[in-house]
């Protein structure tokens, strides 16, 4: 059978094997998909061994997305712009191609929840790797304007400089007020420490859609805050996780699985 895997460290709690095995059943594809723990300093060796043992493709999660980027023979435009790779494919000529499906996973999940993003004013909170990976896909979804804010403002400005040629992107101080947005995306890791970004309540109106890339059984701290400011529509990042997996599956198998059934199952298991 065709062999796939997800690489990370740690990896034992990864939901990717369950997601991809469910996709395989649904689309009637014969394949195996396992979780592989790579040593922190040994991702490339671990991946090469997998390829030597008939590995056809892999997902890559923390902390290896930049190392995966570095070992690719070719990169999609989105992977180049993200500076990170979450999807590796072994081509028929043996070369390794890198993609990044995280941003498209986010965009498709936003569309699934809230409809078209066309013409919307979007606020992106955070300027780390997760933020960088979704800028180009958001611009490609024909949003009107992307405003990037970050605790460390200079990092938001760096992202703006990097993506200005691809669309309408600007930065603001994180605490700026005086305007609200159609969509607010939290890409920060602040909730890991139980914190929320220092946003003004002005950024939210009753129609604002808030999306937290983090997910949890209970409402995430960021989405709790948004609801407290009067937002009516919030969603967490579980759908982004399934969405990026679906895009990877499509790249490897040329068939698009449906996300709903898997998502319902994962939500029940949180
Ligand atoms: P990731 O790959 O998940 O994006 P990262 O590259 O380390 O991880 O980026 C983490 C992001 O979360 C950054 O934007 C960080 O802000 P700084 O650039 O100022 O460090 C943001 N972040 C982390 N903790 C935060 C907090 N408590 N409040 C606000 N932003 C926070």
TrEMBL record:
Keywords: Amino-acid biosynthesis, Aromatic amino acid biosynthesis, NADP, Oxidoreductase. InterPro entries: Aminoacid_DH-like_N_sf, NAD(P)-bd_dom_sf, SDH_C, Shikimate_DH, Shikimate_DH-bd_N, Shikimate_DH_fam, Shikm_DH/Glu-tRNA_Rdtase. Shikimate binds at residues 14-16, 61, 86, 102, 215, 244. Pathway: Metabolic intermediate biosynthesis; chorismate biosynthesis; chorismate from D-erythrose 4-phosphate and phosphoenolpyruvate: step 4/7. Its EC number is 1.1.1.25. Homodimer. This is Shikimate dehydrogenase (NADP(+)). It comes from Shewanella youngdeokensis.
């Amino acid at each position: 059978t065709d062999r796939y895997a997800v690489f990370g460290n740690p990896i034992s709690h990864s939901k990717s094997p369950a997601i991809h095995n469910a996709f395989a059943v649904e689309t009637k594809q014969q394949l195996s998909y396992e979780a592989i723990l790579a040593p922190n300093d040994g991702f490339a060796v671990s991946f090469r061994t997998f390829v030597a043992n008939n590995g056809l493709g892999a997902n890559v999660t923390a902390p290896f997305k930049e190392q995966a980027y570095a070992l690719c023979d070719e990169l999609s435009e989105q992977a180049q712009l993200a500076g990170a790779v979450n999807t590796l494919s072994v081509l028929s000529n043996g070369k390794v191609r890198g993609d990044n499906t995280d941003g498209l996973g986010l965009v498709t999940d936003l569309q699934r929840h809230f409809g078209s993003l066309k013409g919307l004013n979007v606020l992106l909170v955070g300027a780390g790797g997760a933020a960088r990976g979704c800028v180009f896909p958001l611009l490609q979804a024909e949003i009107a304007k992307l405003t990037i804010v970050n605790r460390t403002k200079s990092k938001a400005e760096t992202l703006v400089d990097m993506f200005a040629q691809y669309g309408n992107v600007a930065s603001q101080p994180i605490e700026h007020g005086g305007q609200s947005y159609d969509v607010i995306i939290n890409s920060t890791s602040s909730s890991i420490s139980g914190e929320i970004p220092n946003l003004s309540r002005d950024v939210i109106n009753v129609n604002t859609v808030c999306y937290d890339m983090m997910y949890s059984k209970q409402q995430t701290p960021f989405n709790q805050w948004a609801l407290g400011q009067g937002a009516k529509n919030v969603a967490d990042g579980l759908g982004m996780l399934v969405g990026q997996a679906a895009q990877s599956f499509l790249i490897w198998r040329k068939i698009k699985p449906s996300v709903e059934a898997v998502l319902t199952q994962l939500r029940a298991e949180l």
